[in-house]
Design goal:
Layout: H1 5-17, E1 33-36, H2 44-48, E2 53-61, E3 67-74, H3 77-87, E4 91-93, E5 100-111, E6 120-125, E7 129-135, H4 138-141
Length: 144
């Protein structure tokens, strides 16, 4: 089975970019809001190898809202690369134009079930914690 990624990303983007979706960061010294983000991909080859786990990253946000740097602090290497790549695309609204450091965690979870459909779920609390779940059903086992 194949995920219709464009429709999923479009729906996710619409929900996130709406003004109601902007989220204040409680532990930052300035009141940052997420303006734009891209979830890290969960690459097929990584899922087929049943690689999962948490990736922690430190993000340096400049006063103009762009991401200056991303440092993955732990987790499986292919997932760290995915997180670093995605976080470099993020943009924030920084009302006081002060640079800020954010600590973020992404959990990549494979759930085994018998569904033929490829189910992909993203949840979390912007911008500090995210869970990316994918089912590991018969469609993945046949390719092992």
């Amino acid at each position: 089975m194949r995920i219709e990624r464009r429709s999923f990303i479009s729906s996710l983007w619409a929900a996130i970019v709406s003004p109601a979706a902007a989220s204040e960061i409680p532990d930052a010294t300035s009141k940052l809001c997420v303006r734009k983000f891209l979830m890290p991909p969960y690459p097929n080859v990584v899922r087929k190898l049943y690689i999962q786990g948490e990736v922690s990253a430190q993000v340096r946000v400049l006063g103009n809202g762009t991401v200056q740097s991303v440092t993955a602090l732990g987790g499986p290497q292919p997932l760290r690369e995915s997180v670093e790549w995605a976080l470099k695309q993020w943009e924030f609204v920084v009302p006081d134009h002060q640079e800020a450091d954010l600590n973020m965690t992404f959990s990549f979870i494979l759930e085994e079930n018998e569904s033929e459909a490829c189910i992909f779920q993203v949840s979390g609390a912007l911008p500090n914690r995210f869970e990316i779940k994918m089912n590991y059903g018969p469609h993945m086992k046949s390719n092992r």
